[in-house]
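Cross-check.
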Amino acid sequence: CPVPSDIALTCILLACKIEETFKRIKDILVAAFLTSNPDYDGDRVDISESLRTAVVVYEEDVLRAIRFQFNRMCPFTLMLRIGRTLGFRTEDTMVEAWRILEQAHTTPVV
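Predicted model, tokenized:
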């Protein structure tokens, strides 16, 4: 059974490849570890080989799931569509969702 966090890391790796932003798997996994363990003060982060292997294996699964279609949709348009579908009609809700998406879209991962 796939682990959602492993799939998320795989999606980040694929996004880096699609956007032609070179990031090694190790860089992404270390960034994820440091994000989920902000109090870690060690010099070195050891990434398990099983996690690295899982990301590589899931990469093919994600590519199949998106049918190898790499055309990108603007996340803001998608967010508005999802908001309308879910019935978020109040301006405050949509403005807050827009703000969160904008921060997520402009914050570097690694």
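The first helix runs from residue 4 to 18. The chain has five helices and no strands. Passed to J.P. for a second look.
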